[in-house]
Amino acid sequence: MPTERKVQKVKVIQDWLERCSVAISTDHTGMGVGAMTDLRGALREKGVQFTVVKVRLALLAADAAGKPLFKDIIEGPTGLAFGYGDPAEPAKALSEHLKSSRAPIKIRGAVMGDRVLTAEQVEQLASLPSRDELIARLLGQMQGPISGLARVLNGPISGLARVLQAHIDATAQPEPAAD
Description:
Blueprint: H1 4-19, E1 22-27, H2 33-45, E2 49-53, H3 55-65, E3 78-83, H4 88-101, E4 106-112, E5 115-118, H5 119-127, H6 131-172
Antiparallel strand pairs: 1-3, 1-4, 2-3, 4-5
Helix pairs in contact: 1-3, 2-4, 4-5
């Protein structure tokens, strides 16, 4: 008979799975309590939830959430990082922390929507520019042709203005005085 605490934990994990845009599975073998606390704090600052789960409870939560793909990335000691917005942000936050702290944690894979990602794909996701940066690049590329068109259309008008100004300047000069 499952305890009430385990039933609640399954419900919490189920809720996280249903709401998250990406769930990253890690192997935290060899991590000390201090390193784990640092990891959780660093990820929390970036809006990422990190929790260590029991495999059996995570599998039950995956079934309850209707996410059978999630079972493919869970095995052995498992820590899960849940992201709720841009899927690249949790991958970046986790990757940056692992590089800076040299924590003995390995990324196993992730579930993003209806797709299972390998550890290599999670690293590629972490290397992508942020959503805001991609939008800025897109707007810059969209603005380039418009600016070019404006310059081309402005060319004849500004040429005409220069010719007219030169004509005005030529006719407005006083004639030299005759001696």
